Amino acid sequence: MTDPIAAARAAGRTLLTEVESKQLLEQAGIPVVSARLAASADEASRIADETGYPVVLKVVSAEISHKSDIGGVELNLADAAAVRAAYARIEAAVAKTGAKLEGVSVQRMAAPGVEVIVGMTTDHQFGPVLMFGLGGVMVEVLKDVAFRVVPLEPRDASLMVREVKGYPVLEGVRGRAGADVAALEAFILKVSDFAATHPEVAEIDLNPVFAYPDGAIGVDARVVLAS
Amino acid sequence: MAIDPERIHRMLNPKSVVVVGDKGPNFQWLTNQKEFDGPLYSVQLDPNEIKGIEERGFTNFTSLADVPGAPDLLICAVPRQITPRIVQDAIAKGIGGIAMFTAGFAETQEDLGIELQERIVAMANEAGMPIVGPNCMGIYNRRLGIRFGAGMTHAEGGNIGVMSQSGSHAAGITQEAQFAGLDVTRTISMGNAAILNEVDYLEYLERDPDSQFIAIYIEGPRDGRRFFEALRRVTKTKPVVVFKGGTTEHGASAARTHTTSLATPTALWDAMVRQAGAIPVVTRDELIDTLSALVRTVPAKGRRMALLAGSGGQSVAVSDSAGRAGLEMPRLADASYDQLKEFFNTIGGSYFNPFDMGGTIAPTSARGREENLQRILDILSADPNLDAAIYEVNAGGGGPNQDPERLNRMLNAIESWRDGSWGKSLLMVMHPGTNPEAYATGRAALVERGFAVYPSFDRAAAAYARVEWYYRNRAERGA
Question: Chain A residues contacting B, CB < 8 Å?
Fold first, then answer.
């Protein structure tokens, strides 16, 4: 198994790619949608065949931080032809920015769920701290998030999930399915364990994490190493 | 090397004290220790100052080496350039510890100040010399009469330990607590916390049998991680209130994750304090209010409140206060209502929680009888639906404390209720109203009787809610 941290260090990077981030978190037992790197349209369609459709392609480039802003994310690709066409579009979009394209990440498209964010940062006073919040507008605008200092006790995870104002959304509102709160708590505790045992990791965003009536999975991930 | 806790204990509970470098016109450091029971010495070289010191009856020496014995506490008020010399002499003399009032160190962010502080820290650490500060007000010890403010009580007893990163908050918390009838055992003004820091002090207060309750004012910890861990442990046995000051937000521009950009100091502190099981507050009023509820009522058992007021308008307002604080106002048990309806004056009054009982207990009212208060209190005592009560006594406008005799009888009834069958938390409210004199006397009478007293229902309800959270959380943590 490759070591994503060593690979990033060797390349002089502290920001891990999505593929590296997910590989690292997956190795720690944190459920994420695995992503594999494809350096060509051929490779992308071959991986998609193995993964199963529909798939998502996302641009991989050290110079591009906000992938969807430049048209670097292609969702819901139903077959190999769609994957090849999407790869070409991403190539063209990246060419316009002048950034260097390293390839695309290929992953199975996750079924929609309630979007939440689970993150970690290193505070200069308290060391690693964990964050939980509902995804999308709730986190962007309302900053409806809860923090805890690592390591969390099981009770901390339970309280932090219930502390956000949007918690009723997780319980299910207006006929929408609720989320598996126990699975979210377990997810948070796994990230806490990971943070506690990896001092070389300075920041993590798992955003979004899809919460389902049965389980939760990290759909996008970003890991930043301590410099 | 780490400072020996025994040595810290010796310094904080001195049997002898020496003040170095005190100056006129006030000679505040010597004067503040005037009531100290043990030997008190002065060290000062300046003949002009020596004159004033000796005129005030203090024994002065021109060298620390000449002072008899090895005092347990040295209060240092010399100019900053001289402090390394004083520390050196104190080490040679075998002084217990130093409270360093002198300022002008690292807090100036100037090279000279930073360098001086580094020299002192190196010497103190090598010798294991505990130093409070520098740039602080030192220590207050209620029992021994070691003080840094003239208004600080010298007396036996006390059950609150205070540690503060600000000297003015150290003095303010200590004296406002006194005003609320609370007895602070000891106060430590941490200053720059260059040698001893917040973790040393918290661990000291954890072991101190005279600090059953702990109040902290902090801006930025020296060792946030250890402070969190110590706090999490201490709150299992002692209630701790944390007043965090200086909530300046950091620039989040460099953040590469959402998480980092959202992790503001305010958000993290509040989360950290709660996670550690301590009570976060954001003002000094909230700190004193919370201490009052902690110290002057039995440990909170639940959120179900009876609210007792003298007027209808207030009854609505207090319901709102309770709701904002997350408290509940349950219906009483049917048996209670059956008894209340026999004598309660419901014309212009109500016994549906909140209680509007002015017309029932005021002798000035046609159907009012003073002894009805006792009957109401007895019914509430027996009611299984209640955990606590907030009771407002009117400060003016025909209220009981315009008649001191009546106020006295009323307080007798409430006091025996509190101490006897009730066994649940009771908080008193006296609004300042429009009669400052009546308010001052009435409030003082309530404080004197040992009640937790608040100027508004909002503050009483908020204080009770914080304390209720503390005890519930502590129980849920399995502590």
Answer: 15, 65, 117, 119-121, 123-127, 129, 131, 133, 139, 143, 145-149, 155-156, 203-205, 207, 222, 224
pLDDT range class, residue B251, cuts 50, 70, 90: very low
Task: Find the CB nearest B268 among A15, A126, A139.
Answer: A126
Q: Name the residue range of residue B46's domain.
A: 1-135
Q: Is the domain of B175 the same as that of B31?
A: no
Q: Which of A62-66, B111-115, B416-420 is predicted most confidently? A: B111-115
Distance between start and end Cα atoms, chain A: 24
Rg (CA), chain B: 26
- Dihedral over alpha carbons B408, B410, B413, B416 (to 10 degrees): -50
Q: What would the two tokens of residue A49 be?
A: 């065949």
Angle, vertex CA B432, rays to CA B429 and CA B435, nearest 5? 130
B324 shares a domain with B233: no
Rounded to two decimals, the ipTM of the complex is 0.89
Q: How far is CA B462 from CA A75, B287, B329, B391, in A?
A: 50, 11, 14, 14
For the domain that residue B78 is a member of, what is the CATH number? 3.40.50.720
Number of Cβ atoms within 10 Å of the Cβ of B124: 23
Cβ pair B258:A207 closer than 8 A: yes
Q: Given A125, A133, A148, which is nearest B220 (Cβ)? A: A125
Label residue B252 by pLDDT band (50, 70, 90). Answer: very low
Q: Does B258 contact A at CB distance below 8 Å?
A: yes
- Work out the mean pLDDT of chain B and round it to a whole number: 91
Q: pLDDT per residue over A29-82, tens digit each?
A: 999 999 999 999 999 999 999 999 999 999 998 788 778 888 899 999 999 999
Q: Select from B221, B228, B262 the Cβ nearest to the Cβ of A143.
A: B262
pLDDT at A208: 94
**In chain B, how many domains are there?**
3
CATH code for the domain of B377: 3.40.50.261
Is B13 a residue whose pLDDT tops 50?
Answer: yes
Other C-beta atoms closer than 10 Å to the C-beta of B264 total 16
The minimum CA-CA distance between B200 and chain A, rounded to whole Å, is: 17
Distance CA B219, CA B135 (A): 15
Query: Which domains, and CATH codes, for chain A?
Result: 34-108 (3.30.1490.20), 114-225 (3.30.470.20)
Residue A115, H or E segment: strand A114-123
B248 CA to chain A: closest CA distance, Å?
14
B263 touches chain A (CB under 8 A): yes
Give CA torsion, residues B276, B278, B282, B283, to 10 deg: -150
